[in-house]
Amino acid sequence: MLNSPQDWPEPIVRVQSLSETCVDSIPDTYIKPPSHRPSSSSSFTTTNIPIIDLSPLYASDPEARAATLAQILDACNDWGFFQIVNHGVSHALMDAARETWRAFFHLPMDIKQAYANSPKTYEGYGSRLGVEKGAILDWSDYYYLHYLPLCLKDYDKWPALPPSCRDVFDEYGREVVKLCGRLMKVLSLNLGLHEGFLQNAFGGEDIGACLRVNFYPKCPKPELTLGLSSHSDPGGMTLLLPDDQVPGLQVRKSGDWITVKPLPHAFIVNIGDQIQVISNARYKSVEHRVIVNSDKERVSLAFFYNPKSDIPIQPAKELVTPHTPPLYPAMTFDQYRLFIRLKGPRGKSQVESLTTTTS
């Protein structure tokens, strides 16, 4: 059982409401320290995360399949992030999922407030991560939902409006879970393990999955704040459906912040802390953050594919040798995610604090 507090330390302010009332300034509680503010130079680089066509994985050509596996391995090693196309999820479903949630955020505030969340589970309509009083907040609202295991799936926590919301997300969740399962096989093979290894380490079919829909309203002072502070994802693997009309995701590489250029109908995949632990840091989760802008709102759907919450996650014995001792102690995902639920996003400070061996 998580020991999260029952309520927020301060009254919740919806960022969407601030966006509608703030003309040329933002409240101090959203102004980041200068070292954490977005850098204008990072927005103009031509670099982008790798783009990988998954169709050879489903074809009969073994050379093409091997080449795609190698592309994914290189992307995991070099970036921890990559975009996938020809992934098997309907483009129409992707569009419907994003635009249905956009419609939710444009409903009257009293309808949305009926789903207001608490730090006990985070499920529902929210506007802050972490419960530290006086923390500098992010310029975003969100909606957080459990999809798996089925015992946590509570339709009463899902919005009843727009009327299509529950059906669309049910279908979207089914398709994305299948896609995550296929990617887990690739990640296992690229570690030199059998294709079911990571899935089994996560709990087999009894895994966790949840969705956070991010809503980043227009901001009159985007140079002073962030939509989401720097963090690595605490879970296993994330599939992000971005807003391909409005770039905002930034990935940290070699000390620089690279603004991702999203392709239409591509998913952005990234490694989470749990896979870093199981792989004994062969795969690494990567810091990322979100910038906002003054002209356009942005909606994205982050689907988190996680281990079963109560099984110990630790480095795979097959990847531990005298030369590569285990870097992390065993810890359940329930224990692990309590950190971010209490403290909010803090770069890679959690997973790095767990390292048991220095290199």
From TrEMBL:
<protein>
    <submittedName>
        <fullName>Putative 2-oxoglutarate-dependent dioxygenase</fullName>
    </submittedName>
</protein>
<dbReference type="GO" id="GO:0046872">
    <property type="term" value="F:metal ion binding"/>
</dbReference>
<comment type="similarity">
    <text>Belongs to the iron/ascorbate-dependent oxidoreductase family.</text>
</comment>
<dbReference type="GO" id="GO:1900150">
    <property type="term" value="P:regulation of defense response to fungus"/>
</dbReference>
<dbReference type="GO" id="GO:0120091">
    <property type="term" value="F:jasmonic acid hydrolase"/>
</dbReference>
<dbReference type="InterPro" id="IPR050295">
    <property type="entry name" value="Plant_2OG-oxidoreductases"/>
</dbReference>
<feature type="domain" description="Fe2OG dioxygenase">
    <location>
        <begin position="206"/>
        <end position="307"/>
    </location>
</feature>
<keyword id="KW-0408">Iron</keyword>
<dbReference type="Pfam" id="PF03171">
    <property type="entry name" value="2OG-FeII_Oxy"/>
</dbReference>
<dbReference type="InterPro" id="IPR044861">
    <property type="entry name" value="IPNS-like_FE2OG_OXY"/>
</dbReference>
<keyword id="KW-0611">Plant defense</keyword>
<dbReference type="GO" id="GO:0051213">
    <property type="term" value="F:dioxygenase activity"/>
</dbReference>
<keyword id="KW-1184">Jasmonic acid signaling pathway</keyword>
<dbReference type="InterPro" id="IPR027443">
    <property type="entry name" value="IPNS-like_sf"/>
</dbReference>
<keyword id="KW-0223">Dioxygenase</keyword>
<keyword id="KW-0479">Metal-binding</keyword>
<dbReference type="Pfam" id="PF14226">
    <property type="entry name" value="DIOX_N"/>
</dbReference>
<keyword id="KW-0847">Vitamin C</keyword>
<dbReference type="InterPro" id="IPR026992">
    <property type="entry name" value="DIOX_N"/>
</dbReference>
<dbReference type="GO" id="GO:2000022">
    <property type="term" value="P:regulation of jasmonic acid mediated signaling pathway"/>
</dbReference>
<dbReference type="GO" id="GO:0031418">
    <property type="term" value="F:L-ascorbic acid binding"/>
</dbReference>
<dbReference type="GO" id="GO:1900366">
    <property type="term" value="P:negative regulation of defense response to insect"/>
</dbReference>
<dbReference type="GO" id="GO:0006952">
    <property type="term" value="P:defense response"/>
</dbReference>
<keyword id="KW-0560">Oxidoreductase</keyword>
<dbReference type="InterPro" id="IPR005123">
    <property type="entry name" value="Oxoglu/Fe-dep_dioxygenase_dom"/>
</dbReference>
